[in-house]
Model the fold of this input.
Amino acid sequence: MSPAIPNIRPFLVVAAVLGVFCGGLLRAAEPELPEAERESFEQKVRPILTQHCYSCHSHAGGKIKGGLSLDSKSGWEKGGDSGPAVTPRKPEKSLLIQAVRQVDADLKMPPKGKLSDAEIQTLSDWVARGAPDPRVLAPRSTALDWWSLQSLVRPAVPDGAKHPVDAFVLEKLRAHQLSPTREADRRSLIRRLSFDLHGLPPAPAEVEAFVADRDPNAYEKLVDRLLGSPQYGERWARHWLDVVRYGDSNGNEHDGIRQNAWRYRDYVIEAWNRDTPYARFVQEQLAADAFFPEQAELTAALGFLAAGPNVASGNANLIRDDYVATAVAAFTSMTVQCARCHHHKFDPISQEDYYGLQSVFMGVVRRDVKIDFDPKIRATRAKWETLSMRTRSAPNNQREPKLIDAEKSLLAEWQRAYHEFAKRWRLFAAKGEWLEPRPDGATFVARPDAESFVVRGPVPAGALELVRLELLTDPRLPEGGPGRGEKGAFSLNEINFTLHLQGKEKMRNLGVKSVVADASTKASPPQRAVDNKPETGWDGDPARQGKARVAVFALGNVPNPLPEGAEMEITIQCAKSQGIGCFRWSTCGEQLSPYAVVPWPVAEAIASPAETRSEAQWLALAGHALPIRYETELKALPPATEYHIASGPLPLQPQQKMGKASILRRGEEKMAIGTAEPGALSCVTAIPARVPTDRQSEPQLRAWLADWLVHPENPLTWRSIVNRVWQHHFGVGIVDTPNDFGQMGGAPSHPELLNWLACEFRDGGGSLKKLHRLIVTSATYRQAVAANPAAEKIDAANRLLWRMNGVRLDAESYRDAVLAVSGRLDLSMGGPSIPQYVHKGSHNTTPIAEYADFDWGNAPRRRSIYRQILRTRPDPFMSAMDFPDASQFVPARQASISPLQALVLWNNGFVLRHCEFVAARIAGEHKVPEAQTREAFRLALQREPSGAESADFSAYIERHGLPAACRLLFNANEFMFLQ
Done:
């Protein structure tokens, strides 16, 4: 029988306060170092010690060879087996200096190679100045004796109860002269279990069936049925999402929507429903891409580190700090962020440990990725994206000249498609004033000063989609044209297309949906010719004077199909003295495609025979044609699944080693004092805390950390998850600070029970469902919520569990219970998060939503876990019910009772509307107040009303109506609390 563990936090607080006020007295015996000496040590001496000595002579490195510790002043003062390592002001007599000079064959340090002369001189000068060292406090080795860091040893189960949980609890109760409370009645038990495991009330028929079931194993069968339901995963995933700060927006002032964050939420639900072994659950979230590369669907698990808010500053050090804090708090229940600026003040966590964890995450980036599940599609996409990368990586004129065989083959295919499309153009025989036909189908404008003119001609029946205008050269034009301006320039200011028909509709103006050309400038693109602004126009590219031009217009408002006898009229207006001199029109029934018109360098390359094509022409053709082909092929593939994750590069680069995080004095970017070897917490002494050199590529680092966390000898991980599960069954954990197992946190109320559960869970394969079953089948869990004044005097907080704790429904359970009672709950699972408001802004930004806009329409019928969670725009109803801030770590929710909460539950539109829905549901089958009262109690409270309740409630229905009576039930303590 172990003694009761006292609550030591008040003493620690007092100690901390005394440290603040008495710090000057404590330091008086050792003068404060001058800032210049402090800076010299941190910038020159400490980096040498960190890089060359700490691996064998520091607590963080996990080794104190020869008994010598060099990570503190007291360490070298005490020295090792050979005595003090440093004799201040006497370098020649200091063992440290003798060792690094390597003058003695038996005393050579570091063993893998001698320091540089400059480094040796730095250390010697430091000793000569008196060895000033600001590291006055040694790592607190006594802190390693703290309960959470002790090895997990399975204790013997005490006598006195059949169930092991009850045996440990009963032993503690007897030690304090307490006795357990009677078992709760069956209606309370099924309601408690249903909300605990599902977050939903049991249906009246389920309650009656359980109450009537005389099978001795009825309770166990109920537990198994609830654990086997998919609603279990939805309930318990929400607890985990609190731990990781899940939200559907980025947070901070730029609170954009994360369209793909929901896939991580759905992954967690599925993992709990599958009863994924906890070790694998950890591995999947930290490094699914490394452990299970063939299971693309597990990419969703990598949303773990990306679930929280974005770091506002974008500072890489602070981003990694967030990753470290998330992983360590979630999996080990320890706080490490204090060590970003200095060694942890209360727990044995050094800066080297902290920055070692940062080194693990050096290659991790938060981003959206697209993943194909089908290996064939994945391979096809990879093929086209790899080829595309060659084109996208450099401009055309810097592209790698040598085309690979795959590219040559694709170019040949592209040219065939181009020539095939060219056959589909039909010459448009345009006629008009001053126009002279040429043998090639072109038209020459005979009047030199013509600035505007009209052409008209028949259009074949069928489809009409495109019109092509070719501006051609002619020896009669200045410099050969194609315009009549100086050196053949032109400016085509406006073009309009009109269709003349023979039916009732005599004329139809045709719009232009888009236009492309083979040459233009940014100032005068072809779109300027169809913008209904005569003062602007398309002038081609003045650098291409004396060369033909081509523009293709995609028409709109065209009858489909085009009737017989139709004619098209084209009105052209040019700038003064810059008219067009020679042109040819064609029409096509195909949609606009990349083959309709190409840039002039590409057209020239196509016109040149392949065997005589210049390198520049090949590059021009490849730079244009290949990206089009790649885009076409990629668009034809089924859409990839998008995820919001934080991981290393995808696809994995297994051989790429990461850099190491700098150890920052005071956490300042500009005050680096060395680098940290990737690793974890050295205070877990049973397992190595540094990553082996052969596991330092990006994915291997995350995989190593996952393995370190789930190592059987890691006491933090197994205690942490067991405590979290216990907390959500009893309202408070065995350790009442679920995210702080350090010295500023609480001590376990039942340490042997915690150890036994952790060992049982770990050794049993990490099945969370088995853990639930073990806990909820105990007599301790099945106790009634009953008062006992004598017990309250001994244990007012019920930390010894002499009764069951009464627990108020959390926000989601209350809301889902209201939906369930109304009969409107939609149990559809998964999918994108559902906005619960009328969105008045851009869907990519934080919505502008008023209070009255929440919970409107049909979307709110889904369970609360599927609601869209916006960090800077929380749902006011859910917030009043203590839904947590998704930007903060919330390992345990508050259960406040406030005037605001009372007002919300009484007046909120969601509650009022659902009172009407419940009333309609009841009134549809029951017409008299007494029957309506009975059904309302069965739906909301899972029991029959008493005689007095029936009389009072029925009278209330007659006076105020059934919806008002339902409103009373939704505000009743019995509805709000689990008994």
